[in-house]
Design goal:
6-stranded mixed β-sheet; elongated; alpha/beta
Length: about 650
């Protein structure tokens, strides 16, 4: 009874200390009966069984204005819990309710709040100011003038201490940029641009040294003291960081073992039998207790267990911690306050649907996203200059190999080989587009669900920039070099039809690569799929095997071959009207010799009529549209919530 009174006094004292401080006006986030489970599949392929695993179990509490920390051991559910509060968790398997200032969490809450992910997602080729301006242009309402947005960006740069590096590039793997702490503050700034009442951060100290991490947390503390609700997950902070926390939530395997004032946590654990040694970091001490560390457990009232039963010992400690918290004054006061918030109304056992709202129109989004995409390509030499340079090198190589083909019997094979090489080269060169959506996957998902832009805006911007910069320009450069070095048909009509066909083959191959890789997460896996596809297409292109001789049950595969359509169009464009027996006495020409281009096309099974020529381009256009549709649908339906 004396212990209960002591704990009540500690709790009341902590509450009074907080209320005596600065009056905060931020949003109050309350969570009621949060339970989250996932479905796991196990067993062999023919006997797969679905099992359920609980990630979060019956969580209740309140996050008030201030610095609210979520701590726990690895795998305790910190990030999952943060995602639930931020409305970024897949609603499937989630029950309970999150309230904002006592009202139901709006379906577009993720667009109204700020969320800083653990892995920095920011365009590295742009400067700090350009990234913040991009966020301001798309996330702030159109009613705010451009000058006001620029003023807000400038003010935010000064508040975050980024004035010295405001016009420096953030940095990529090839470009040296700003420091890790400045990069983290840039990510925070992109979320603060909308001045959210609640800011979520997932492991904000990841990858930072102790001093830089302390600086970032002190920045967050100043923001919290100014009236903002900041909720963050953190693994093992040092003491100088821990003492900044206003509220602390401790999780063990998805269960709460403490939720209350951070400065009262040590007294609470001491009350239940776990005493922190002098000069020990409280954060380290809590993890020691949770993990069943011997030095912490020795001071507890838990019976000693054999060393071979460590797992059972940890389960006993977990059950004790959960039970003690459930019977503590902290839990009782929290439940009472939650009851006052819901005012007797039952909480929902489901979560609302996730919707995304936008503050800007389609054209505004398209202009800014397209501008950023083009700028990123221009400032990234690996994807712009290198692409053109490699294309020119290959054009010179193929031009040198098939240099100045003659209009004779050897010219037939040389022309056919050159056209085949050019077509296949366009297909394989387009495989570089596989990384178009993969490398920016995290950035796209974060910006999309935060309400930066529509999916259609991002898709069109990426397609246009890649098509124009990395496919059209290289194809034109390749044609201008290779066509005249090889010595193909010297007419303007043939030249431009050749360029059009080569470019169209590049477009179709690019969209095929996008359709295959849009839902992939690893570039190497996507490259394997695309290489296999291109190899099969190359077999049915018309050089390695005579298409009319293919058996009927395999013949249909030729209709799926991009090189076949490209090679067919190039053959008609080049061979039609050529005479390979010109100047040769007809009496000495061996029987069966191919003398005209039409004879060669007939032997290859190529229709050289007007429709026969243009049907290849029509087929490539249809395939391009189909591949684009597949890529778009894959982006639409990929998992955007964790």
């Amino acid at each position: 009874m004396v212990d209960e009174v002591k704990m009540e006094a500690v709790l009341i004292s902590a509450t009074k200390d907080k209320s005596a401080g600065q009056q905060q006006q931020g949003a109050v986030v309350s969570f009621h009966n949060i339970h989250y489970k996932i479905t796991q599949s196990g067993g062999c392929l023919c006997r797969r069984k679905a099992t359920f695993k609980d990630i979060l179990i019956d969580l209740n509490g309140i996050m008030k204005p201030g610095l609210n920390a979520i701590m726990g051991a690895t795998g305790s559910g910190k990030s999952s819990f943060l995602d639930v509060l931020a409305a970024r968790k897949d609603p499937a398997g989630l029950s309970g309710e999150v309230l904002i200032d006592g009202a139901p969490q709006p379906p577009n809450f993720k667009c109204l709040s700020g969320y800083v992910v653990q892995d920095d997602v920011v365009m590295g080729t742009l400067t700090v100011r350009e990234n913040l301006s991009f966020s301001a242009a798309l996330r702030l309402p159109s009613s705010i003038s451009k000058a006001e947005k620029e003023q807000r960006v400038d003010k935010l740069i000064q508040e975050l201490g980024l004035g010295r590096v405001a016009d420096s590039r953030v940095g990529t793997q090839l470009i040296r940029g700003i420091s890790g702490g400045e990069r983290k503050r840039t990510n925070i700034g992109m979320e603060l641009i909308i001045n959210p009442s609640v800011l979520f951060l997932d492991e904000p100290t990841t990858g930072l040294d102790a001093s830089t991490a302390n600086f970032v947390l002190m920045l967050l503390k100043r923001m919290a003291d100014s009236g903002r609700t900041i909720i963050l997950s953190i693994h093992q902070p040092r003491y100088s960081i821990y003492r900044l926390f206003d509220n602390l939530t401790l999780l063990v395997n998805g269960k709460q073992v403490y939720h209350g004032a951070a400065q009262s946590a040590l007294d609470y654990f001491s009350h239940i039998g776990y005493t922190c040694e002098p000069h020990n970091n409280p954060a380290d001490f809590f993890l020691d207790v949770i993990n069943g560390d011997s030095s912490a457990v020795a001071l507890s009232s838990v019976d000693a267990v054999d060393s071979d039963s460590m797992l059972k010992s940890r389960q006993l400690i977990e059950d004790k911690l959960v039970g003690e918290y459930r019977s503590s004054p902290f839990f009782k006061q929290t439940k009472a306050e939650l009851e006052r918030i819901i005012d007797g109304k039952p909480t929902r056992s489901y979560t609302p649907s996730r919707t995304i709202t936008y503050n800007t129109g389609f054209l505004t989004q398209f202009r800014w996203v397209l501008k950023r995409t083009f700028r990123n390509l221009m400032l990234n030499p690996q994807t712009s200059i290198a692409q053109v340079a490699v294309t020119l090198f290959l054009a010179v190589v193929v031009g040198a190999i098939f240099f100045n083909v003659q209009e004779n019997q050897s010219g037939i094979q040389n022309r056919f080989g050159a056209l085949f090489f050019i077509t296949v080269n366009q297909c394989f060169s387009s495989l570089s587009s596989a990384e178009l959506f993969i490398l920016e996957r995290k950035l796209f998902i974060h910006e999309y669900i935060s309400g930066y832009y529509r999916l259609s805006v991002y898709f069109l911007s990426k397609i246009l920039s890649d098509i124009l910069m990395l496919r059209t320009i290289p194809s034109i450069a390749f044609t201008c070099v290779a066509y005249f070095m090889i010595g193909l048909k010297p007419t303007a009509e043939a030249f431009f039809l050749f360029m059009f066909t080569v470019t169209l083959v590049a477009y179709t191959s690019t969209t095929m690569a996008l359709a295959i890789s849009a839902d992939q997460t690893v570039v190497a896996i996507a490259n394997i799929y695309m290489t296999i596809t291109c190899v099969f297409m190359m077999i049915f292109a018309g050089l390695l095997v005579n298409l009319p001789s293919i058996v009927s049950w395999l013949a249909w595969l030729k209709y799926l071959s991009i090189p076949r359509y490209g090679l067919g169009a190039l053959e008609v464009n080049e061979f039609q009207g050529l005479d390979f027996c010109r100047g040769v006495n007809s009496s000495i020409i061996p029987p069966g010799t191919i003398c005209t281009g039409e004879d060669f096309l007939t032997e290859q099974g190529v229709d050289y009529s007007s429709w026969g020529f243009w049907q290849n381009h029509f087929a490539l256009c249809v395939m391009t549209c189909c591949f684009l549709a597949i890529a778009y649908l894959k982006l639409r339906f990929i998992r955007k919530f964790t």
